[in-house]
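[agent] plan:
  1. take the single chain provided in the ticket
  2. run structure prediction with default settings
  3. attach structure tokens to the ticket
  4. add a short note for the reviewer (M.T.)
[agent] executing step 1
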Amino acid sequence: MIDYVRGRVVHLESDSIVIDVRDIGYQVITPNPYAFAKNEDAVTVYTHYHVREDAALLFGFQTREEQALFRKLLEVSGIGPRVAVGILGGGRPEAVVAAIHREDLSFLTRLPGIGKKTAQRMILDLKDKLAMSAASIETMWEAEAVGQTAGPDRYPVWSEAREALAALGYSAAELDRAWEGMGGACEPGESVDALMKRALQQLFKG
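[agent] step 2 finished; step 3 output follows
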């Protein structure tokens, strides 16, 4: 089992990164490649090594929480590694866990690759396996219910997206205008990748 790799990110694709570890480039499939914007500093990527008949694939995550949730998702019938990565790309881990605890089919079926039957299996198989306090669930529910309409500093997801966009060369002024053009709010459960795409649409408008 390859638990993590540490090295420099030397290439980004739409669904993966290439990380240089002692002059060997590892392709790592990840929910949000843009979170690993290229720089000279070494980064740690928590991984899951998946072997099948025709390929050996390495999936990677920024946090242990993402890695753990990914592995739990693989226990659900009908969810393979690609779908699990899509789930983590479509919603923050804490939002996905909260939705499972709330039995929120509406939220779960908005995630990539998840239909009603799979969402029901997620709830049945994982609700008792995913630890989350009642207070955390209530806080997450309240944050989504109000639509998260406060300033940008309230949203860690926008901070990550902003940092990644800045690494791509966009100025602070451009990113401020993009945030304003997006209505100054994140959508409930919005991922860094989805938020970056919305911001780029604003930036391309000039």
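[agent] step 4 note for reviewer: The chain has three domains: 4-61, 64-145, 152-204.
[agent] ticket updated
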